[in-house]
Amino acid sequence: MATFTSNSPSETESFGRQFAGAVGPGDVIALKGDLGSGKTQFVKGLTAGLGARTTATSPTFTLIHEYAGGRLPIYHFDFFRIEDPHAAERLGFDEYFFGDGVSVIEWADRFPDLIPKDARWVSFETKSETQRAITVPENSPAF
Fold first, then answer.
1. Beta partners for 74?
2. Among residues 1, 6, 2, which one has the least CA distance to residue 125?
3. Cβ contact 45:19 at 8 Å
4. Does residue 69 contact residue 52 with C-beta atoms inside 8 Å?
C-alpha cells in the first residue's frame, strides 16, 4: 500500500484525475472513509480524468450516477443509505461490475462481501480540517 497526503479538496480531485490514467473497462474501485474524508472529491477527479461530460456529485440520495462521454463510462454507487446486503443486491450493481465501464463504490466497506475480489480499495482518512491521507494499492498510478 502507498499513501498520498492531500492538503486540499483540489489536491484530492487532482489525485483522482491521475488515478484515472490507470483504470480500464471492468475495473471496480471500492472507496472507504468517514463522511467528509474526500471520497466524492476523488470521484470528481476520476470522472474528469476519464473525460466525462458531467461533474460528479454524491449519489447518496439516488444510489447510482452514470457518467458518459469520456474514455469509459463511469458507474458511481453509494452504499451509505443502503440498510442491508439484500437491498444492495436488488440494485443490480453486480451487472455493472463486469461491463464496459468503471464502477466506483463509496462506502464499499459497508458490504465488503459484495465487492469483487479484484477490486482496488482506496481508503480516505481525515487528518485535519484540510489534510487527508489517501491509501491506494501498490499497483495504482504513482503520485
1. 67, 102
2. 6
3. yes
4. yes
Q: What is the phi/psi pair of residue 88, to 5°?
A: -65, -45
Please list the pLDDT of the chain residue by residue as tens digits (143 residues).
899 999 999 999 999 999 999 999 999 999 999 999 999 999 999 999 999 988 887 766 667 788 888 899 999 988 888 877 777 777 777 777 877 899 999 999 999 998 999 999 999 999 999 999 999 977 655 44
**Helix (H/G/I), strand (E/B), else coil: 141:** coil
Residue 67 φ then ψ, to 5°: -120, 125
Dihedrals φ, ψ of 103, to 5°?
-105, 130
Q: Which residues contact 113 (CB under 8 A, 6 or more apart)?
A: 85
